[in-house]
Amino acid sequence: MLAQARWPEAGDDGPAPGVPGFVSSQFAPVVVAVTERCLGRGYGVAGVSPGRRTAIVLVSASGDRTSAEHVRAAVEAGGRIGPLFFFQSVPNSVAGHLAARWGLRGPVVCLSPTGDPYADGTAEADLLRYDGDADEVLLILIEQAPDASTEAVAVLLGGEGRP
């Protein structure tokens, strides 16, 4: 493990800062906040070295629950769905946003775990590294509970050699 971060951490009062292009839900802002922390801790101010291939594996059983509920309610009421909800309803949209923002040059994989989310995510990360598709993997685990605030953890996995 090269770096780790959580949302929330000590001092996180209130929602995660908004992200341009993402509306209404805390899913994308929390993914961005936890990733910024993790990559900042792992890479520092220098950022990702140009030759490094960093993959993103985003793991969520429920995805963006808030956006999905908004779309469901709008459809049931016969209303229109705003175009941003189509964009942000796919979890890889926020992963792609992060890859572009940080210059990450590895694959982007989104998983809905069938077992333990961390075990499923690390298995995918190991596979990406073992197959030579990535030098490092940013593993993001996020869930939105209907009656609690959104929580996430990001872990930068990698180092010398393959697993």
Topology:
Elements: E1 3-7, H1 27-43, E2 54-59, H2 65-76, H3 83-88, H4 92-102, E3 108-111, H5 117-130, E4 136-143, E5 151-157
Parallel strand pairs: 2-3, 2-4
Antiparallel strand pairs: 1-5, 4-5
Word description of this protein:
There is one protein chain. By secondary structure, the protein is of the alpha/beta class. It has a single domain (3-7, 24-157), classed as Peroxisomal Thiolase, Chain A, domain 1. The chain contains 5 helices and 5 strands. It has helices at residues 27-43, 65-76, 83-88, 92-102, 117-130, and strands at residues 3-7, 54-59, 108-111, 136-143, 151-157. A 5-stranded mixed beta sheet has the order 1-5-4-2-3, with helices on both faces. β4 and β5 form a beta hairpin. Residues 53-147 form the Beta-ketoacyl synthase-like N-terminal domain.
CATH superfamily grouping = Thiolase/Chalcone synthase
Query: How would you name the oligomeric state of the polypeptide chains in this document?
Result: single chain
On the 0 to 100 scale, the average pLDDT is 87
Helicity level: 25-40%
Strand order of the largest sheet: 1-5-4-2-3
- Write the element-wise H/E pattern from the N-terminal end onward: EHEHHHEHEE
Q: Please, how many helices? A: 5
Number of spatially distinct domains: 1
**Low-pLDDT regions:** none
CATH class: Alpha Beta
Roughly how many Å apart are the termini? 12 Å
Largest sheet: 5 strands, mixed
Q: What class, by secondary structure content?
A: alpha/beta
How many β-strand runs? 5
What shape does the CA trace take? globular
